[in-house]
Amino acid sequence: MSKGIKMLSAVDTARRPHTLESLQTLEDNKQTIPPLFCDGGQCLVPVRFVPRGMRNNPGKEPSDRAAYIGLTAATTSDHKPGCKYDALGQLKVIVADQSDRDFIDALDAGKSELRLLLLHNRLGGKTLSGVEVPVQPSTGTAQSRRPTAYHLTDKKLDSYLRTTADILKLRERCEADEVLRTNLILRLGDKKIRWSEFFFEPDRYEEAWGMVRRRGDQCHPFAIMGTVERLSLPRTGSTQVNSYLNLVPERNRTDERNIKHTFNVSIGHSDKEWLQKLPADTEVIVFGVWSATAPTSNDVAQKNDPAKLITYVNHGLTLFPKFKAQVIELG
User: Fold this and answer.
1) What is the rounded CA–CA span in Å between residue 62 and residue 76?
2) Quick check: helix, strand or coil at residue 134?
3) 188, exposed or middle or buried, with CB in 10 Å at 0-12, 13-18, 19+?
4) Which of 127, 125, 146 has its CA nearest to residue 135?
5) Strands 112-115 and 68-71: what pairing?
6) Choosing a second label site near 200 at 20 to 30 A (CA), which of 9, 173, 208, 317?
């Protein structure tokens, strides 16, 4: 399960095409969904339709779940090689296209390793304790065997950012991180990073905030996926330089003490014209070295009972991207 890429269409036993929209219409009208099969070439493995709905998040407000088509629970094999929905095949293409072994290197058993340290350093990350500094290869002479700092050129940086974006976009298209977790090892110097600590969906902003607060300057770069809610511009006459692109936050349910926790994600940048190109409802993945602010609280009277207060506790995650390629527009 969850080995493949979320699909937008499929075929039935008579090879008639069905789109997400047509299947959702059948669902809405309480009509039977026919048996479905992958339409990625000659793959034709059984797939299932998952209608749009609300995802139940224990202790948190429900979140929207978009409709998609994916492998069935009974499917024991993945999509066939060459199928456009074969996540492992797509990953292999991305890895093969990145020729720099300092960034992606092959391991045993067909696995690969993504090395994030050089990218971490160029994105503004602080020096991490216990992490080895990469060195240039030795040519065999006594002089060249001395460790020297490895300099990441702008050309290589662009290549690293493109490859990282391709991997993150593939992760977003997958139902889960199973394929990437099994086949692509994440490493920062001598430390391995779990995929669950590298890619955060909207119902996991609280976990991302907590990780940054615990680790501080020792936190590795990671990605957050979300939907643009609004753009906050500097007030007229203020000395504020940056505008802030705010994503739809994660909100916990109000507890028995009338406390409601909200986890906000913001991207700050001085180029407001660039941020304005990402209007509300745009889906994005944002990658880099994040900062997390301490919680702040605000008491607000309820409309139907002004004497009763709700305490809103706000938690902030902010990224100031050094490169515009760190913000990836989906679509």
Assistant:
1) 31
2) coil
3) buried
4) 146
5) unpaired
6) 9
**What is the length of the chain?**
331
Report which of 192, 205, 272 is spatially closest to residue 232, judged by C-alpha positions: 272
**Which of 116, 132, 287, 291 is closest to 217 using CA atoms?**
291
pLDDT tens digits, one per residue of 247-289: 999 999 888 888 999 999 999 999 999 999 999 999 999 999 9
The amino acid sitting at 102 is D
Buried b (16+ CB within 10 A) or exposed e, 114-138: bbbbbbbbbbebeebeebeebeeee
Q: Is 62 helix (H, G, I), strand (E, B) or coil?
A: coil
Q: Which two tokens stand for residue 331?
A: 């679509």
Using the structure block, give the residue that is written with the tokens 């095949």.
Answer: 89
Cβ contact 62:202 at 8 Å:
no
Structure tokens, 275 = 């941020």
Q: Kindly compute the dihedral angle of the four CA atoms of residues 201, 208, 231, 243, in this order, to the nearest 10 degrees.
A: -140
Q: 3-state class of 265 per DSSP?
A: strand
Q: Is 24 exposed, middle or buried (0-12, 13-18, 19+ CB in 10 A)?
A: middle
Identify any residues that bridge with 264 across adjacent strands, giving them in sequence order.
316
pTM over 0.85: yes
Tokens of residue 40, six digits: 């990625």
Which token pair is 128? 């991490």
Residue 11 has which token pair? 């075929």
Under DSSP, the state recorded for 279 is: -
Instruction: Find all residues with CB under 8 Å of 143, minimum gap 6, and list them.
Output: none
